[in-house]
Amino acid sequence: MLHPLKRIVYLQNKGIPRGICSVCSANRYVIEAAMDKAIYYNSFLLIEATANQVNQYGGYTGMKPIDFRNFVYDIAKASDFPQDMIILGGDHIGPLVWKDEETETAMAKSCELVRELINAGFTKIHIDTSMRLLSDDRDKRLSPVYIAERGAAICKAAEDEFLSYKANHPEAVAPVYIIGSEVPIPGGSMEHEDSISVTSAEDFEETLNSYREAFNKADINNCWDNVIAVVVQPGVEFGNDFIQKYNHAAAENLTKRLKMHKNIIFEGHSTDYQSPYSLKQMVEDGIAILKVGPALTFALREALFELNMIEEVMYRNNNEIELSKFSAVLEAVMVEQPIYWNSYYNGSDEQVILDRMFSFSDRCRYYLPSSKVLEATQKLINNLKIKDIPLPLLSQYMPIQYRKVRDNKLRNDPEALIKDKIGEILEDYYFAVVAG
């Protein structure tokens, strides 16, 4: 069976600008909204987990690869979404989480992670070995050859594991690999940037050549055909309060060089907050895998804040209803546990407070799974299920969803409203990736 992502590569080679949206989130509402859109467009759904999010030690979500797979499959079952239309991906697979450890230890853990991913049925692996480890000279740039050799070691571990997995799962599709060392910081830039350096055509070529040689050296040439994409920096980025828009002209040298290589496409990271037309231009230029994460949970957070305001208006004079105080609870938990935001937000106290709640970097997403925030979320949902939200109030705080409810295209239900808000972002991606 042909891997679904290879079909996209085939179409791109034929000059058909087809792509796929990669949903990088472990949030239930985000995944449910993504499944709704994939059903509507009759599309495969690519869902990815980063190495710090899901790994053999649990990551910050507390999930190992098999747990994440089961989590996604359980949502699919409840949503009547076909399991065979799900592509699970591992993002930034390499020593990202263990960069403060010695090379031997960090790489051993990276190889163990990729083996667990393969055993859990993940079939898209983004190999990222571009970070310095404790053993590396901090004053020297890691050479592309060294990065590729580390990447080949991870790929070899994946291939060896797949042989064992295939013996017990004869229907299994071989994994595909994404390579590339010019990877934007997961979750957005930590500083405001006036311009972004686009990967040069020469650096792209060097990445390909270095990996080919490393695969040859590791005796895994047989899986080179399963390397389908290279991560490059096409000139897109976002931070707390800025968005660097895609510039076709600035990326033209790079994207023209791509056309010289059959069976390879580009993967774009940090595409969050781009306009639908920018996303479409990226797909037309061969950047066919568009990764999005923070923009989806940003939309989720917006929806929860809007519903919180609706709740307060509806019940502020009703002493029988205990309000969720969702926004206040989220803020309190973030202040109590600053580990996930304090290195991202700086400046005056006023600026930090603003960024903590409203930044495009959306560090709020790390706190949504906390018990206190989950409890407040459920209380908010329960309160708004007691009776329908009055349409004038819905129009005030969620005008787009109001129109859909008014026209009987959306249920007046808090969870349906949340997922539709997230769906607005996903709609931009489907505009870009669906040909025509």
UniProtKB/TrEMBL annotation:
Cite the annotated pathway: Carbohydrate metabolism
Q: Which GO biological process entries does UniProt record here?
A: carbohydrate metabolic process; phosphoenolpyruvate-dependent sugar phosphotransferase system
Xref: InterPro entries: Aldolase_TIM (IPR013785), GatZ/KbaZ-like (IPR012062), GatZ_KbaZ_carbometab (IPR050303)
What would be one Gene Ontology cellular-component term for the protein?
plasma membrane
Q: Quote the SUPFAM superfamilies the UniProt record gives.
A: Aldolase (SSF51569)
- The molecule here is called D-tagatose-1,6-bisphosphate aldolase subunit GatZ/KbaZ
Natural source organism:
Ruminiclostridium sufflavum DSM 19573
Organism lineage: Bacteria, Bacillati, Bacillota, Clostridia, Eubacteriales
